[in-house]
Sequence to fold (597 residues):
Amino acid sequence: MSGVNVPVRRGGSGQRRRRRGGEQPMVPDAEFTSYYGRPVIKEPVWRVPDVPGYFFLGGLAGASSVLAAGAQLSGYRKLARVAKAGALGAISLSTVALVHDLGRPARFANMLRVFKPSSPMSVGSWLLAGYGPLAGAAAVSEATGVLPRAGLAATLAAGLLGPGVATYTAALICDTAVPAWHEGYREMPYVFAGSAASAAGGLGLLATHPDDAEPARNLAVLGAAVELIAKRQLLARLARSSGQSLAEPYEAGTTGAILRLAEFLTAGALAGAVLGRHSRAVSALSGASLVAASALTRFGIFEAGMASARDPRYTIVPQRDRIAR
Amino acid sequence: MSSDPAAWAGHLDHPPRMGFFTDTSVCIGCKACEVACKEWNAVPEDGLSLSGMSYDNTVGLGASTWRHVAFIEQPEQPAGPGDGVRWLMASDVCKHCTESACLDVCPTGALFRTEFGTVVVQDDVCNGCGYCVPACPFGVIARREQDGQAHKCTLCYDRLGAGQEPACAKACPTKSIQFGPLDELRERARLRVQDLHAAGQDDARLYLDDPDDGIGGGGAFFLLLDEPEVYGLPPDPVVTTRDLPDMWRHVAIAAAGLAATAVALGLGRRRR
Fold:
């Protein structure tokens, strides 16, 4: 046989090597071997917008219930009403997205066939099964005035389960072999909690007069600050990953642009929410930006994981490096 | 052996753990295993196209490919009398991990541990959530377009129950695919590596034979002649759920922080 081809590719395609500002990488690319450049792990079959949309809406719902409980206790009735309606709307839409993403939607009830702490999706299904009706009861009681005491109890209980709904999705994506998700498991829950809080606070700012929105503003500011810091720490850890930066998928191409836009919107809205707290227009704009930024963050994180699953470099090089150490 | 996944799963009086030892040094790339698997398990056709990857047009394991023969052409070193090519051929399969990520994360219980220590999907339970797909560190299990459900090698659970060996092992003409009690296979594999080393094949090594590795050892393990990644296998796979307790800890802290925020907001100045 003549013309022997060597099918095993060494090194990557090089297009991901582009850095912001065009600076030259200081460390040469780690050489690695793969089987015809094929991915080692399977890319998640979860679809866009279903699943990142679910992460965003679940966060919005869960943190809105936190806001509703806080607003109700401190006497911000208009804000509590908005937050309860937001929680019910978001959790309803997110459940639709979740069921729609199943390969066999008619079998969605099988999610409650067993309870498995080893499966974040099982834990999440039970959380949703408990939280959803509570969020619904809270919103319906608020809107109709029926059974106010039961409504208060439902509001408080939803406020208790809401944080679980908003954050378990971080464990859901990190508990996979997807390198850019798994290796970020120590920071991801705080990113998700912060993103959820800023979205819920943002919705409150958007839908109520600034004079009635103080708890929403506090939640939004706290959430946005936590999100910005946790996301920086996430990327810093992933950049230190042995042999191969796992921050790359979060920084390259469209995904990088989406996440930078989200960060810009969050930081701008943070300033707007604080400085423009007496202006209805500035508060509403800040609120809308926070909601949008939260959605963009979830889509960006989702896409970064998908990209890291598709390229064998992100699976092989850190493992190879682990063996060498 | 301390690792007894069938017992962990509650099978009290169970048969010995059964598995595959795939000795790639005698694989001739005939793909009889691929065909026998498809035939016996009635796995549907999943594409008839040319990949350009040597003789490998199967490309990889998937929902409708439960055995996959990899073909690697390498320059022979040192150059021999032949055509200067070293052929590596290897039949890949589900590893039936001792610590199995797909099984851990399955929210419906569709994936279960059999009395033979293998991991099998129940077709009538799986709702196609797809969680097992990115959980697998080997990219084995996948969701089939036609029925929306996850599928993978069952280690011929039906044949094992009838005292038969799996279809691929039965069809393999060179005994590259060996089936049997895992303890016996591990012993046999160690002797085989010794023989190969004695014969000058220094690059022979076992993969996933170690109960102390990141997946607790494979129920299916391999003798390879090059690094695992050359065959498309991860060099140091670790089951993702080993970190899950730590993940839950961080989720709990984040959720508690959010709940504490509700209390803090509630303590604010009452209005109206």
Observations:
- Helices of chain B lie at 5-8, 32-41, 101-105, 132-135, 157-161, 167-171, 182-198, 244-266.
- Chain B touches chain A through 83 residues (CB under 8 Å).
- Strands of chain B lie at 18-23, 67-75, 85-93, 111-113, 119-121, 142-143, 150-151, 177-181, 205-207, 220-224.
- The longest helix of chain B spans residues 244-266.
